[in-house]
Write a structure and sequence with these properties.
The chain is an all-alpha fold and 148 residues long. It contains five helices and no strands. Helix 1 crosses helix 2, helix 1 crosses helix 4 and helix 3 runs antiparallel to helix 4.
């Protein structure tokens, strides 16, 4: 029974992280921490790294803290920490590798899902300022981007 609860908590955490990514992106990155996220939209830097990468570090620390709590007896620490880690890995592959091509992989992916996610992200990046943005999610985007 414990394994089922851990699996459900892992899946629930992973799905909750999509909401957290949307919320953080819309209200924090495009809000009071725009100064960290702005270089991701403007590309006005020469480095491979962006100030925007600090958000990844924040969630990595949260995940590691949950692993630490799991090692110290909190039953929910491991499945929750692994759910955040799994979402971070998925986000890295979809956002940084697949969409922004920070590594030259998955360039030829051209299925229904990949076209929709790319289209949604392209619409998000057409807005260079912090206001008037659209489509702040990553893995689950509105169906209108899958049409065409």
């Amino acid at each position: 029974m414990d394994v089922i609860i851990w699996i459900l908590l892992f899946i629930g955490t992973f799905l909750t992280m999509e909401f957290m990514a949307w919320f953080t992106h819309k209200y924090i990155m495009h809000g009071f921490l725009w100064s960290l996220h702005k270089d991701h939209h403007h590309k006005d830097h020469d480095s491979w790294f962006e100030r925007n990468d600090a958000f990844f570090i924040f969630y990595a620390i949260v995940s590691m803290a949950l692993f630490y709590s799991g090692a110290n007896g909190s039953w929910y620490g491991y499945p929750t920490g692994f759910g955040i880690l799994a979402y971070g890995i998925a986000y890295f592959f979809v956002h940084d590798i697949f969409i922004h091509q920070r590594f030259k992989l998955f360039r030829n992916a051209n299925n229904w899902y990949s076209r929709g996610v790319r289209r949604a992200h392209k619409m998000h990046h057409k807005h260079l300022g912090k206001d008037d943005g659209e489509c702040f999610g990553m893995l689950f985007v509105p169906f209108k981007y899958f049409k065409k």
